[in-house]
Amino acid sequence: MQNFLEFEKSIAELEGKMEELRHLSDIGDIKIADEVSRLQTRIDRSLNQIYSKLSPWQKVQVARHPDRPHCNDYIAALIDDFTPLAGDRGFAEDAAVMGGLGRFRGRSCVVVGQEKGNDTESRVAHNFGMARPEGYRKAQRLMRLAERFQLPVVTFVDTAGAYPGIGAEERGQAEAIARAMQVCLDIRVPVISVIIGEGGSGGAIAIAAANTVLMMEHAVYSVISPEGCASILWRSGDHAEEAAEALKLTAQDLLKLGVVDGVIDEPLGAAHRDPLMAMKAAGDAVEKALEALDGLDPDTVRARRRERFLNIGNDKLS
User: Going by CATH, does the domain composed of 60-317 fall within 3.40.50.800?
Assistant: First the structure.
């Protein structure tokens, strides 16, 4: 059953009517193909009107939609012969971070991503995509493996942030995130990152310090969640909508600021309405980004990645 967001109520009503008409059509009592077609046109028009002018807070809700494709979905759709690799070789396996070897459109690669899960059981198993230190140390291990075998790295970012629990802090959460960023910037192979849902704080950038950073059209990317920002600035989560506006966390804002390199168009009504189309668009963008780095020597690949991050904001200071 389709999950509708608060601002999609008018669409929910139209789709409910259309389902009723389709049921009558299946019974064969009434010929209603024309009416169904008219309703579909109205639905498409409403979706276009709503999604062409989403507020930042509405974008946050879309990025968190439970039916939105997650990391494992992207891996299943885009990566052939995927072989997962587990553990950080130091403490434990962290199911919030997925990683392994595979082939992306004929090209061998290493894949790393955050997985939120798609139902209660899997969300708990993956800790809602919030990685612990061992997850980021596993990412470091896999990125070094990619460098050793001269394989490009593709990362899928989708996390509200790193796990803030006591155990995670005791095991060096901040150090693990910083080291993951360091490894991202240090390895001499291409790194392409796609923010597919939420890009939350250091938990996101830990695997997104890439040569090319791409964002899905309705994804968000920020130093802190709107709720967290509101609790700090206003001492109340009730101001999350205002915080979302101030954070400039949408793909469109971040493209203007030069934080991301490209925005990947989503199907009408966002990725959760047509996951396969959304994932194919992401695959096309990743392929194009990798092709742009083909033929470059390893030192140049690393130097360009570092320059990319050092240059963020320079034009704002001049």
Answer: no
